[in-house]
Write a structure and sequence with these properties.
By secondary structure, this protein is α/β, with parallel strands linked by helices. Helices cover 47% and strands 13% of the residues. α8 (147-164) links the parallel β5 (133-137) and β6 (167-169).
């Protein structure tokens, strides 16, 4: 059963119950932290339609013992994600799915900072859990900030993935752009159908990782 990771102060009693429930999960259950922004949080769709929940259910149906930790926060930047890591890493993380940076690009944030933050997120996770597997989700941004910025933004994700030896999904939105019914009216956030397509992409990436982990 997926767990939504509450931040301190959101709901003290709910968070205490949530933490206890995660801690009580059998050690054989692989913990997948989906760290991201509004896409991971499922902005504009029902919680059960967001891709982390869909991925978890597909993996359970396939016979994998997993638990999805929902760490998506709408509007979050790479800096915000890094600032949340101490809290998010209170419980074991076996796989980190990193979907951050899109809001950095939309806001024109210095790309060196974005790159540094993504690297720091991976580093702090590995320091706490050395055997963690990491998947970096690549993104693109509209060209309104100029070709050079847009191109460099796109290069961040494969560059970080190569530097830190992670798995990589080159573009989390593959198959969504320009396809009717896949993106909401804002032109950014996936519809329920879009989340289904993202879930299929993420599922395909996670299956071989989980297979190797269970083999070990």
């Amino acid at each position: 059963m997926s767990q939504r990771q509450e931040m301190p102060g959101e709901d003290e009693s709910s968070n205490a119950d949530n933490t206890s429930e995660i801690a009580a999960i059998d050690s054989s259950v692989i913990q997948i932290l989906f760290l991201g922004d509004s896409i991971t949080a499922g902005l504009g769709v029902n919680r059960e339609e967001a891709f982390p929940v869909l991925v978890e259910q597909s993996l359970l149906d396939a016979g994998f013992s997993v638990n999805a930790i929902e760490g998506g926060v709408s509007g979050d930047t790479s800096t915000g994600g890094l600032n949340r890591m101490d809290w998010l890493l209170q419980n074991r993380v076996d796989i980190l799915f990193l979907e951050l940076g899109g809001n950095d690009g939309l806001r024109g944030i210095d790309l060196n900072l974005t790159r540094s933050n993504l690297g720091a997120i991976i580093e702090v996770t590995r320091e706490r859990f050395p055997d963690v597997q990491v998947v970096v989700a690549g993104m693109i941004v509209p060209p309104n900030l100029g070709h050079e910025y847009t191109a460099e933004f796109t290069r961040i994700f494969p560059s970080v993935s190569e530097e830190y030896g992670t798995f990589l999904i080159p573009f989390i939105g593959t198959g969504l752009v320009g396809v009717d019914g896949m993106v909401q009216n804002d032109g950014i956030h996936p519809t329920s159908l879009g989340h289904q397509l993202i879930a299929e992409t993420v599922y395909s990436e996670l299956v071989p990782i989980l297979t190797d982990m269970q083999r070990d």
